[in-house]
């Protein structure tokens, strides 16, 4: 706990004074004076070193110094040496002495002492009170009185202060600090009451003062002020206070800990976990398919060709894609195609139509498909990066083809797809740019599709386009925004899935009302239906199990 606990009293000669304080120091914060003296025993939590208190320092202070002054008042004295307790586990040293070493901390403690004993008033004569500000720190002050047969009013005013900069932490620690400070105060008061009663029996001061009222003498000149050691008749009182303050600081720090709260996993993260299957021996089985040595044989032939690529990606490959131009990210793809062509292509992507990119080199085709994947949830992405034969849409919705592959006629007439041909420009058509500046300028991108899109743009696609067009946003911000946007719409998909698949028979009118509730428009319906494929198996099983238990 990054705080300082101080014991203060109101001196009849010097006013409010700090008597004793305990504060934590990390190893790098230890002062040179705490290393210089001999070791003594008797402090809980490790070895204890004698620490020279600034109140008796032999080094003279400058005229402008704000440090503590040296005085000879017995009532303001506490310890000429202090104590250090070492917490080896937390690597913290707790140092107790008369005044704080740091001048700024001393100034904060001094101001808190003055306010607690002269300015701040709590309900009742004794008790806790909270005050402070951002500059001088926040203070929990517990004021109390100790009986003293030789003091004015037969009592002396004390307070225990807890000073720290974190207001919220201190207020949250109030229920812990106040009861434990009260235990320390009760212990001091009990000892002082025993001494007071013993002195009253021996020499009643009230009667003695009444008899001497004819020739009054100022009390402060009559008898010197007494220290807390004399008032409690306990020469180890400050050692006990050190132990108590150290325990309070350590226990309060352990009581409130910072916990990192994480939300539920996203559907994309669940999809990633579902790619792994834990065996009985505790090993994780990764599903993959070994690829042939031929660069263009990614789809393969025969028995392996019927395997469906895993959701969220493509088959693992061992060979390198080779050198060549690449599309860096989604924003880069939009700049290469132009906003109009990219809008059409992205519309096909988000509603689930098959995206076919045909051309060479392989690195450019694969990187273009990879740049489009962030527009979809991982569970909706099935990709074959580069193949020498056409693959059906039920196998993949992202397909890369070599330039010589022809799309079958029945696919051209019936399937919902968009074909993007990447062809190199001739020397006459290519712009006169060096190859190392922008090699993508030497390729043409031609797009064709037999499918007709709705005139209204889906809501999620509009937001994606606005983000990609905003040049003030960095690529990292764009990526995080797309993740949040997809998760927002996956939550709507979950509601629609539970409503339609697991909620029994629903009319079209009921579905329209639900879309209005979740904030979806009619043009968003194809997206919601397609994105249902991105739901994890875990969520589907949970919904179906809950639905069966209710019927």
From TrEMBL:
<dbReference type="InterPro" id="IPR037520">
    <property type="entry name" value="Folliculin/SMCR8_longin"/>
</dbReference>
<dbReference type="GO" id="GO:0005813">
    <property type="term" value="C:centrosome"/>
</dbReference>
<dbReference type="GO" id="GO:0005819">
    <property type="term" value="C:spindle"/>
</dbReference>
<feature type="region of interest" description="Disordered">
    <location>
        <begin position="298"/>
        <end position="326"/>
    </location>
</feature>
<keyword id="KW-0343">GTPase activation</keyword>
<keyword id="KW-0539">Nucleus</keyword>
<dbReference type="Pfam" id="PF16692">
    <property type="entry name" value="Folliculin_C"/>
</dbReference>
<keyword id="KW-0963">Cytoplasm</keyword>
<keyword id="KW-0458">Lysosome</keyword>
<dbReference type="Pfam" id="PF11704">
    <property type="entry name" value="Folliculin"/>
</dbReference>
<keyword id="KW-0966">Cell projection</keyword>
<dbReference type="InterPro" id="IPR037521">
    <property type="entry name" value="FLCN/SMCR8_DENN"/>
</dbReference>
<feature type="compositionally biased region" description="Acidic residues">
    <location>
        <begin position="314"/>
        <end position="323"/>
    </location>
</feature>
<dbReference type="GO" id="GO:0005096">
    <property type="term" value="F:GTPase activator activity"/>
</dbReference>
<dbReference type="GO" id="GO:0005765">
    <property type="term" value="C:lysosomal membrane"/>
</dbReference>
<dbReference type="GO" id="GO:0000122">
    <property type="term" value="P:negative regulation of transcription by RNA polymerase II"/>
</dbReference>
<comment type="similarity">
    <text>Belongs to the folliculin family.</text>
</comment>
<dbReference type="GO" id="GO:1904263">
    <property type="term" value="P:positive regulation of TORC1 signaling"/>
</dbReference>
<keyword id="KW-0206">Cytoskeleton</keyword>
<feature type="domain" description="UDENN FLCN/SMCR8-type">
    <location>
        <begin position="74"/>
        <end position="536"/>
    </location>
</feature>
<dbReference type="GO" id="GO:0005929">
    <property type="term" value="C:cilium"/>
</dbReference>
<dbReference type="GO" id="GO:0005634">
    <property type="term" value="C:nucleus"/>
</dbReference>
<feature type="region of interest" description="Disordered">
    <location>
        <begin position="28"/>
        <end position="75"/>
    </location>
</feature>
<feature type="compositionally biased region" description="Polar residues">
    <location>
        <begin position="54"/>
        <end position="69"/>
    </location>
</feature>
<protein>
    <recommendedName>
        <fullName>Folliculin</fullName>
    </recommendedName>
</protein>
<keyword id="KW-0472">Membrane</keyword>
<dbReference type="GO" id="GO:0005829">
    <property type="term" value="C:cytosol"/>
</dbReference>
<dbReference type="InterPro" id="IPR032035">
    <property type="entry name" value="Folliculin_DENN"/>
</dbReference>
<dbReference type="InterPro" id="IPR021713">
    <property type="entry name" value="Folliculin"/>
</dbReference>
<dbReference type="InterPro" id="IPR044886">
    <property type="entry name" value="FLCN_DENN_C_sf"/>
</dbReference>
